[in-house]
Amino acid sequence: MVAGNLFEFAAISAILIALPLATTAVNEICRLPVPNDYIECNAYFPSYRFNASSKQCDRFVYGGCGGNANRFRTKGECERTCAEARRLNSVCPADSTWNAQTESCVCSPELCPKESCAPDENMEVGVEATGWPGDCCARYICRSKSAKKYNPYWKDTVAAILKKSRATRKNQFDVEEAGAHQVDRFLPEICLLPQAPGLCKAAFRRYYFDASSQQCVLFTYGGCMGNGNNFQTKEECEQTCAHNTDSSDESSGEEWYG
Q1: Which of 45, 76, 91 is the last residue of a domain?
Q2: Across residues 243-249, what is the average pLDDT?
Q3: DSSP secondary-structure letter at 199?
Q4: Other CB atoms within 10 Å distance of the CB of residue 142
Q5: Taking the model in full, what pTM does it have?
């Protein structure tokens, strides 16, 4: 009985290897779970299956009948078959891609859906993604253009900046008052975000706006993740952030970011 099952298993494996996987795509094979009926028969065939959750090839014992195509004779065969599926993003979330160097899914902001708001609304960044797993794509808030443009997210950051420059400002403003009535003089929200090199290992020259020094500073970007405070040139950074510091305050004695 065992010999017969062994012959059957070898024949089925040979057919699977020979077929171009036209009927069942590789990425679908690598997603298949190990079924409950793989132990129905009494043979003992050490095998491997691809675990789509851990992105690893796990060992299991095949009983000789039933089962599905997610079954490989060796770990190497499993890894060779499903590595391509991982590179093709078949086992990563929709907003992430497979990184062969780190052998993990990494956030790919370029895959994020394009957000839009109604013509009478302004788009504001809501929650910035901080890593994977988790929110890869930043979430946005649509606000009516006629409503107050105060965003509570700014409160803590603005409070810290005001505290830092308290000794040099002649006129003091309450943080809530500043947030509600002086928001047009604040920097765009992305300019208040911290430097974020990201999780990947590339080395791209980028600039970020340092709200404490009011300067566009060079840093090395890894190529993925990060946040919106990321500019390809110093000029782009300055055009977006530096001109919003309201230089007229220097002459009026109302210095906001000392």
Answers
A1: 91
A2: 48
A3: S
A4: 14
A5: 0.30
